[in-house]
Amino acid sequence: MRLPFFKMHAQGNDYIYFDFHDREIPDISFRELSQRLSTRRFGIGADGVVLILPPSNDEHDARMRIFNADGGEAELCGSALRCITAYLAGKKGRDSILIETLAGFKKGTVLQREPYWITQVKMGKPSLVAERKVQGLVGLEIDMGNPHFVIYDDKGPITDIMRIGPMLEKDGQFPGGVNVHYVVPENPTTIHMGIWERGSGPTLACGTGACAAAYAGIRLGILTGAVIDVHQPGGITRVHFDAETQDVRLSGEVTFVFDGFVES
Question: Where would you tag: which of 31, 198, 206, 242 has the fewest CB atoms within 10 A of its CB?
Answer without folding.
Answer: 242
